[in-house]
Amino acid sequence: xxxxxxxxxxxxxxxRDGVINKKLPEGQYITRPEQIELLPGVVEAxxxxxxxxxxxxxxxxxxxxxxxxxxxxxxxxxxxxxxxELEARGARLDAIYYCPHDKNSCHCRKxxxxxIKRAFQDFPDASANNSILIGDSISDIEAGRRAGIPxxxxxGDPANQKPGAEKAIGLADxxxxxxxxxxNQFIFSNP
Length: 191
Ligand SMILES: [Mg+2]
Ligand SMILES: [Zn+2]
Hints:
This protein is α/β, with parallel strands linked by helices. The chain has helices spanning 42-51, 63-66, 72-87, 114-122, 138-147, 165-171, 179-187; strands at 11-14, 55-61, 95-99, 131-135, 151-154, 174-176. Helix 1 packs parallel to helix 7 and helix 5 (138-147) runs parallel beside helix 6.
């Protein structure tokens, strides 16, 4: 495991489920706004990024749409709810990118990097040189690596660890227990 400090980053890519909100058990999908449960410290972490002038972006695979379990409008409602929950507490997401497709059918589902590329077009100040990606899946870590962005793996509850977690830990540039811990330790650390 490499230990490193990343310094201030302009652009922070955040996975959603398992990083911002509590993920459901493997194979279950969030399909209603009330299923969004913010993880501890997330509001503070995102607020810290906002106050430092970072761009806070979500990049999330939402295969439930491709599987017919959720509509694009349903996902928009979930994301509106997420934004409002955060904004009510002073934390802002600059954009939310999602892939609605099923596996192996597009160039945006992580570990593909379509969402990251699109963000770089939408936010010209952001690039691989000043970005970081924080996720809790092997697909997040692989997407960051393919895009040339350093990665932090969030390992939550060990009992609820996803398949591929061990590999992800090995590939990530750093690991942390929560988004807040990642932000404080690696992005705003004062050595
Ligand atoms: Mg996740
Ligand atoms: Zn896609």
